[in-house]
């Protein structure tokens, strides 16, 4: 972000009261180059001293370039009543910006707005974030007819996130000048930006949801003939899926029409067409430049708590609704004459369906690679290809060993017309669907499987074909998936035989004879390894396809039974879960991208990234009362569902925005987010990352309510998920177990742990606007105090300054068009003291 930063101070101001201390603020406006008017641009914070040196700087961004013709209006006000914004103008001047920036002189002196006596001077220092010299540059003020130009040190901002990252847009910059404990000066720069992932991630997820549901509908149609009872249920389930698909198509179409800002305003949180978008998603970076200390940056992502506001919270949020739903589903299963499947069983069924769908084409590809290696007549290549094929085929067989698949086959068989079981014939009770998983059959000697490998080419196609009986054979499934292992062993035996023959022939031949043998072999089709392997490989692929067909239909029937017991509540809950997860993933992806770009030069961080992963610490300030407890219950499930996500880093084709956007792949049980990096950045990544190793993220949620509703609830609830014991520091552990109301030290400790673990920080409340602003500004000032020796006398001033005129106030205005936090005095009385905004910065507004 190329911007011009001005530090402003006032000298010799007119007094406005008996105490001689005006509450001074400087307002800056810039002339519109295309219209004859001035545009309000920025202002300093209010300072209660006679000759104030303001903490906030004035920022002219790249959207407001300065030229010799540019006019900048500086107006100094005495704020008589901060709560009511009653002001009186001390003096106003309209200098040429070019003159200010080039230290040229101005004409006659400026006087008070009533034309009376001299009103004082304004001291302007132009700042650039960058390396600070050992000593501060201080020169004698040069009077410029009421305007003073003071050259100052040069400060360049490094690591700006929007030079390369076009997905971060509409930056808002604020610059501060704070004093350290040793009376030096530090420069602090806030930069807040929107993120295009607010829209792109939900759009991609909607498309993936629809693809998955359309695939499910197709699988249901391919189940074959079912009894009238199950056929009617199938039709009803398909109708439900079709309704969801249609709804998602409409939502996606509405989202495609949206233009303008890259975030969803807090006032739109309950709008149906925007329900998949995160609320008020912004990134915030604080850059600190101190004397004799390395520059440092601190990042945080702010967004409203992921929750289904359009669907409401009268019955609670996902955590409560899912628990109630599972209890009710058991009784539904009896009414619908179907087996009850727990969430674990359903998740396992989806995992099996996903695995076999991925492994079947992979096995086919590896089998073709084996044949290609055989055609090349290379023993090492042949053995390497065989190893890859064996590994994936064994993984495939292991996936199908699950007892759930065996039970599903029985259930599907009983749902088909004309089913008669052995047990029914003999008068015995039908077997229970809950069984103990049978072990993998012991490996069979190759000689037993393929008595004569050479003659396997003559094996009849139906030797190990799946038996078909009118009555159900419980051992049928074991024979089916075991046949895949048999086919693989035949291939292994043939490869071993060919490789052994090749090795013996090489040992028996002399050099010249070997060359002649190679020539003869390469031109002799009769000795082509490919021809010998091809029939065995073809039968392996046929057997795999046969098994996949049976397994898919069986597992699809499990999902049909689960869906039949879910009408209509289960479908509504799935839609709610889709909405919440969409918001949560957009927020997580934004934080991950920001963290990766910030740590590109940190070898330790990159090593941790691929060896261990990253902690994603979500801080929530929601109360455990009324509607907000429903939001918290939604957020709990949304954050927990992020465990199903992994990230991969890829190389972008170009540096164009469309090629740098993260790409989401997968289905509801597992998603992969691919993050493309520009070529040079990608080449600097460790080899493990460049090879596509999945990068894990460990989501953690801490919630402590701080508002007046939490006081009504009379308890403070900590929600912590999946933070391993090894990651607790002592202070955090003590705070977690302490029985204190509104124990916000939990949040402070958790944030400190996260930063020391190179993690990603997220902060949220209902709208990420008011309580979130108090938390972010408090965290930033605490970092300045603890890491950069901010003077204790400046701590409260710095905190009030950031809250009154910093990026968070700009966030409030972007959302509701008003520069007021939505608090009232009664609410603030219940807040912890450090979370209360300065006087005059709050007031009750519609949110």
What does this structure look like?
- There is one protein chain.
- The chain is of the alpha/beta class and 847 residues long.
- The protein has 4 domains: 4-156, C2 domain (Immunoglobulin-like); 159-196 and 231-298 and 768-847, no CATH class; 352-416 and 444-564, no CATH class; 578-764, no CATH class.
- The strands form 3 sheets. Strands 11-12-13-14-20-15-19-16-18-17 form a 10-stranded mixed β-sheet, with helices on both faces. Strands 1, 4, 7, 8, 9 and 10 form a 6-stranded mixed β-sheet that branches.
- Helix 10 packs antiparallel against helix 12.
- The longest helix has 36 residues, at 529-564.
- It starts with a strand and ends in an 18-residue tail after the last helix.
- GO terms for molecular function: phosphatidylinositol-3,4-bisphosphate 4-phosphatase activity.
- This is Inositol polyphosphate-4-phosphatase type II B.
- InterPro entries: INPP4.
- Residues 420-448 are annotated as: Disordered.
In short:
The protein has 847 residues and is of the alpha/beta class. It is built from 25 helices and 20 strands.
Q: Report the structural category.
A: alpha/beta
Helix content: 40-55%
What number of domains? 4
Overall pLDDT level? 78
Task: Tell me the distance between the termini.
Answer: 31 Å
Question: Widest sheet: strand order?
Answer: 11-12-13-14-20-15-19-16-18-17
> What does the main sheet amount to?
10 strands, mixed
- Large-scale geometry: elongated
DSSP, total strands: 20
Sequence stretches where pLDDT stays below 50 over 5 or more residues: 102-110, 131-164, 428-470, 520-526, 710-726
Structural Rg? 34 Å
Q: What is the number of helical segments per DSSP (H or I, 4+ residues)? A: 25
Content of β-strand: 15-25%
Organism: Hippocampus comes
Keywords: Hydrolase, Lipid metabolism
GO cellular component, one term: cytoplasm
GO molecular function: phosphatidylinositol-3,4-bisphosphate 4-phosphatase activity
